[in-house]
Structure formats: structure tokens, C-alpha cells
Amino acid sequence: MNISGNPYLHLVRAPAALTVLGDTAAGAAGGLRGRRLLLPLSSVALYWSGMALNDWADRELDAVERPERPIPSGRISAGRALAVACGLSAAGLALAAAGGGRQALGTACALTAALWSYDTVLKDTPVGPVAMAACRGLDVLLGAPPGRRGAALPAAGALFAHTLGVTALSRGEVHGTTPAVARAVLAGTAATAVAAGAASRRGLVGAIGYAAFVGRAQLKAVRDNGARTVRSATAAGIHGMVPLQAALTARGSVRAALAVAAALPLARRFGRKVGPT
Description:
Layout: H1 7-11, H2 21-28, H3 39-57, H4 59-65, H5 78-122, H6 128-141, H7 149-170, H8 179-199, H9 204-223, H10 227-239, H11 241-249, H12 254-261, H13 263-271
Helix pairs in contact: 2-3, 2-6, 2-7, 2-11, 2-12, 3-5, 5-6, 6-7, 7-8, 7-10, 7-11, 8-9, 9-10, 9-11, 11-12
């Protein structure tokens, strides 16, 4: 399948959406059935919306640092990118309402507001990584069982912590990072893996896989703080959300966890053609 030539697939980082399908499964502990199966599709639409909006907001900076991206390269106009972001946000909200009713719609509205705030205002501020992590936590809560958001909080906390580290590290994708940041992110990954493994014996394998997959790349960033290594570690962190989601989903359903884990090889394969960052 040739997906590398379509500028819209690059605009929304299309294959990276495979790493968000498991958010709602983790929040529901595998309990997604019937119309609630629309909730992962809501996550995908909102994720793609955030990616398109990110490129619209960063179009002037990208013209200097990443001129190959769709907007600065002239393959997609800024106005069209913004329209794509708006349309996908609307689709995400509609899917949330159809799949989870009032509770899911409320969470999706909060998530949409957080995404737009991050991309347009908060990204380059000191609270930027926290804001991005909050988006991921809210996406997990989107899958919470009706009337039981509290049951999804541990999973949301784990994805929040992981995303906080990945986002902090990603700030060094162009100019490199510092040893202190790289070490802190690696320590956070280790703590998240321990927490995920402790939540359920059935999730232990996934937690170990997560720690190995993400930790190995982040350890390289500790040893080499250059931009190229940081980009690789960031990509591993994005893909590493899948085994973490699987570990958290396994506490409710091993079958659902295996389905979540199946997204990883696809995300890595297509990520070579359309980068996740």
C-alpha cells in the first residue's frame, strides 16, 4: 500500500492513529461493545484533528525547521489544513455522542478544548507537556464505563504520565535535549511500567514489553542527546503507547488486550512511510 505520497496522510500523521485506538479500550478495561465501539473512532478523528491543527499553528516555524511538511511545502494550503482540523473535531464529537451518549460527549468536548488550547496557545509554554498529557488522559476517560469514570482513572493516569515524558522529550527533536531531561523521562517510563504491571497480573507481559520497547530507545537518548536520537526515542514513545494500552486493557480482558497489541506492528510498518512526529 502506497501511503507516502498523499499530503493529507502526512498532515494528520495517519498511521500514528493506530496508537490511539487502545486508549478507550484501556479506559473501559476491554469492555467496548455495540455502539461503544464507535469511541475508538472518535479518538482517531480527534487525534487527526490535533495533528492537522498542529501543522496549521506551526506553519511559520515549520517553514524554517521542517519545510518538507505539507503546508510549508505548498502541498496543502493553511486554510485547507484548518478546515480539515475543524471537520475532524466535529466528526470526533459526533462519534463520541453516538457511541457513548452524554458522558462520552462531555469528555470529548473537554478533550477537544484541550487539544485546541494546546496547539494554539499552550504548546510552547512551560505547561505544554502537561497540557498534552491531559489530552491523552481525557482520551482514556472517553472509554470509561457509563457512570464509572473513577474506574478508568488508573489507566488515564498511566497514559498521562507516559505522554508527559514523551512530550517533554519531543521538545528536543530539532535541537537535541539535555541529559537531565532524558534521564527524567526514562525514570518516568520505568515507574509507569511498574504501575501498569502492578495493576493486574494479566497485564504484566504488556508492561514488560512496554518498558523494553520504550526504555531501550530512551536509554540511547540518555547516552546521546542529539536531535536524531531524540526523534527516534520520541517515535518509540508514541508507538510504545500500544503495549502500555494492552497492559492496562488486560486487567479486564486478555482478548481485548491482544487486539490492542496487534496495532503495534502496523503502526511501526506504516510509520516508516509517514512519520508519527
